Amino acid sequence: LEDIFLSRVYKFWLWSDFIFKFTSEYREGMQYIRLLQDLANSVFEEKKILYLDKSKTNLKGKRKAMIDVLLQLHLETKELSKDDVMDELMTFLFAGLERTAAALMWAFFMIGLHPEVQQKIQEELDNVFGEDRERYATEDDLNDLTYLSCVLKLECYADVIRSGHTIPKGASCFILSYFLNRDESVYPDPEIFDPDRFLPENAAKLPDCAVVPFGAGQRNCIGLMFATMELKTILSSILRNYNIKSLDSSRCTSFSYVLLSKL
């Protein structure tokens, strides 16, 4: 879907919905969308049955999951239609699965290329978990994994927001984070894989909003905490038991966007 989206962005003649609907890219994209819709619909129907069966879902005094909040707004207050709920579910499924998987892929790739970073991660894991390689990570454990957080912040390639420029009324803005995250005035040697730059004593020197892979302010990404905990849980579980080595030892690799990045 991302490839199709980018293809449409760069081919101005596909900006017209009328023209785009006659292309093979449109037909292929609709196939992917239908798969997501089918998955979202199955989740909706399954959770709806559980929600209506009060004997199996005692939510009193408990924090509700997002799907339960959406179902309440749909079934009880009627503030949301089924289509509204389905739109939100598709957003969660696409962002929660695809984005997290991509972040994990690049995290493992970079950790495998840098054994010295991997060693620091495993030393921190030993300090937090001790000899127990099977224990599930608690929220406190994840909060104690400060160096692993630095690795993830680096892996997300944080955005850098610059001020001082006038944006005309009605203008559309597109942030080229690929270049912003390589601003040498903010990140010395930006092409170097160096999680230490995000340690507390170093992060304090960064400008405000220098690390915003999930956005900032009241409208930041709703999945910030969940995605961070998910990534740290998976990484900590695997790196407690295994050493990672990247089969491709080259310092350059190609992204699906057909950009070449020095790593």
Question: Any overview of this molecule?
Answer:
It is found in: Endoplasmic reticulum membrane. Keywords: Endoplasmic reticulum, Heme, Iron, Membrane, Metal-binding, Monooxygenase, Oxidoreductase. There is one protein chain. The chain has about 260 residues and is mainly alpha-helical. It has helices at about 1-10, 15-20, 25-50, 65-75, 80-115, 115-130, 140-145, 145-155, 175-180, 200-205, 225-240, and strands at about 250-255, 260. Helix content is about 55%, strand content about 0%. Strands 1-2 form a two-stranded antiparallel sheet. Strand 1 and strand 2 (about 260) form a beta hairpin. Helix 3 crosses helix 5, helix 5 (about 80-115) packs parallel to helix 11 and helix 6 runs antiparallel to helix 8. The protein is globular and about 50 Å long. Residues about 155-160 and about 255-263 have low confidence and may be disordered.
